[in-house]
Design a protein that fits this description.
The protein is an alpha+beta fold and 262 residues long. The protein is built from three helices and 13 strands. It has helices at 2-35, 187-197, 210-261; strands at residues 39-47, 61-67, 72-76, 80-88, 91-96, 99-104, 111-114, 124-125, 133-135, 138-140, 145-151, 157-164, 167-174. β11 (145-151) and β12 (157-164) form a beta hairpin.
Length: 262
């Protein structure tokens, strides 16, 4: 009888250890996901919202408009603008693609820039054969490095940063003068889109904000930790009680046997 109880205790102990190890693994996984969101800068960035991350394969025109002294363009969805000094009323200086622009915004929502975020769309543009464009008095052709920066309001023109031998021109090029191109989402947002496409029942209208999702993960971690402690306590306290009971029973059996011997 005692051997059976001992075997049961061993099985229970092994089960508890495995269960606790599984819970610890889950906890570590959850903590690693939260710790993965590391920020490189203070809360001074504006993120261009995405209209339909699941159904649009590339980053279109956002609602974030930037201006030079003469022109206004819209940055692509999912990218970031660093807010600078206030100039007047709701107009601020801002930094985008290493260049200084102006942005007019009322009560902007500022966030910290994720450490692994890509601030540059990194799209190189090419003019069609024999096409050129005059930007700020500079004739731009394919001997220039032409970087995509944003869209015109009607999407017929592309705002670019063109450079050659220390010469730089910022302005619009008619879209029909450029070869076809696509603008990828910012790297973290692109990864998020891939995850969404892998989900079977995703409703973009029910997508949880990042802060809410993080809160839920923290709540899950707390619940798992409490569950681990409860399970550990219940099983080991129970095992200890059984062990004490067995010792008591063994003591009684021993006393009884001595009586019979006498």
């Amino acid at each position: 009888m005692r051997k059976n109880k001992t075997a049961e205790n061993v099985i229970e102990s092994i089960f508890v250890v495995l269960l606790v190890l599984a819970l610890v693994a889950i906890l570590l996984l959850q903590f690693s996901e939260i710790a993965g969101v590391v920020y490189a800068d203070g809360e001074s960035y504006i993120e261009a919202p995405v209209s339909d991350l699941k159904n649009n394969p590339s980053a279109g025109k956002s609602v974030i408009a930037l201006s030079t002294d003469d022109e206004t363009f819209y940055i692509p969805e999912s990218y970031y603008v660093k807010l600078g000094e206030n100039q007047f009323a709701d107009t601020y200086k801002c930094l985008y693609l290493g260049e200084e622009f102006f942005i007019t915004t009322e009560n902007p929502t500022l966030i910290a820039l994720p450490a692994n975020a890509s601030q540059d769309p990194a799209v190189s543009l090419t003019l069609k054969d024999s096409e050129t464009e005059v930007i700020n008095g500079i004739t731009v052709d394919n001997t220039f490095t032409i970087r995509f920066a944003g869209y015109s309001e009607d999407l017929t023109k592309i705002f670019v940063i063109a450079e050659k031998d220390g010469e730089k021109a910022l302005g619009f090029i008619a879209k029909n003068k450029l070869t076809d191109f696509t603008v990828p989402y910012e790297s973290l947002k692109a990864a998020e889109r891939e995850a969404l496409l892998n989900e079977n029942n995703f409703d973009p209208n029910e997508e949880l904000p990042a802060s809410t999702s993080k809160g839920i993960r923290i709540a899950i971690i707390v619940c798992l930790a409490v569950a681990a402690v409860v399970i550990f306590t219940c099983f080991f306290v129970s095992s200890k009680k059984k062990s004490n009971k067995l010792k008591q029973e063994d003591g009684k059996d021993y006393d009884s046997s001595k009586k019979y011997e006498n």
